[in-house]
Fold Putative HNH nuclease YajD.
Amino acid sequence: MKTINYNTFYRSTIWRSKRKEILKRDNNECQRCKSNGRYSKADCVHHIKFLKDRPDLALVDSNLLSVCDICHNILHPEKLHNNDVVKRVVSEEKW
Ligand SMILES: [Zn+2]
Ligand SMILES: [Zn+2]
């Protein structure tokens, strides 16, 4: 199975420009809050099908969603079980 280096990926120019594109598409608004009738500014772009499961969808628009930090944590329950990895990744770059 194809593996992906997250740090390399999240630092890549192609991801940075894709991320900007998605935030713009979603009007910098958290799409999860929006669907709950609330407004929050989006802080990051989330992979609906997680990057670790579907690296092939890493840059596919339909797999990307602008969300706020709070929603993002909810969307990643695995972070709670994997604190070391999370701290390292989060401090370097938003998911
Ligand atoms: Zn939100
Ligand atoms: Zn995410």
